Inverse folding.
């Protein structure tokens, strides 16, 4: 098990966004799919915010770790020595994401279980650990393709998808947003677009 990242934090509200940023940065660097990165950020946020709401210890230390496992799997882990707070036991419910209804309590647990059914919480030797696995890491490089012709977008996506994670965009604005957030390493552009050319994007 190779450690990709490990750091101890003082548990307070600002670290929630900091840990989300670290997750995005590290997972993007190793080519994890965007939807899996978003899901990991959502689950980490849900767990940490619940921990913050229910922890009364003055010395609230938390260790955040990311490990690379065999067969392209990752382990995300949060460890603390505070009084046990088992999110799964304290907020269990029969609510399901597909229901579309809002209920009091249990929604966060359902979200965690929806995205990561393997998530678990354990308490041993005065240490609590919340963890979940990411599997099937996509090693294909990410490519952004911008074209205002939907048939060309579909055609090129079909040709390229076996070797690249293809993000298709119909205009410069959405392409620019993807450039800022996706960690793409390749940009493929149609020169002439409905509202001008793609040259301003290249200059930016």
């Amino acid at each position: 098990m190779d450690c990709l990242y490990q750091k101890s934090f003082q548990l307070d509200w600002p670290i929630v966004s900091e840990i989300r940023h670290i997750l995005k940065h590290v997972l993007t660097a190793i080519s994890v799919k965007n939807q899996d990165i978003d899901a990991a950020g959502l689950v980490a946020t849900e767990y940490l915010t619940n921990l913050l709401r229910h922890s009364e210890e003055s010395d609230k230390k938390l260790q955040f770790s990311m490990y690379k496992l065999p067969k392209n799997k990752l382990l995300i882990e949060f460890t603390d020595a505070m009084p046990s707070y088992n999110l799964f036991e304290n907020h269990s419910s029969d609510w399901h994401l597909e229901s579309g209804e809002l209920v009091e309590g249990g929604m966060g647990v359902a979200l965690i279980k929806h995205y990561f059914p393997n998530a678990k919480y354990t308490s041993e030797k005065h240490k609590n650990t919340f963890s979940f696995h990411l599997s099937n890491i996509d090693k294909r490089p990410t490519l952004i393709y911008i074209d205002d012709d939907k048939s060309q977008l579909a055609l090129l996506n079909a040709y390229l998808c076996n070797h690249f994670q293809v993000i298709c965009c119909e205009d410069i604005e959405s392409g620019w947003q993807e450039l800022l957030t996706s960690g793409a390493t390749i940009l493929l552009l149609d020169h002439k677009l409905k509202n001008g050319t793609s040259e301003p994007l290249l200059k930016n």
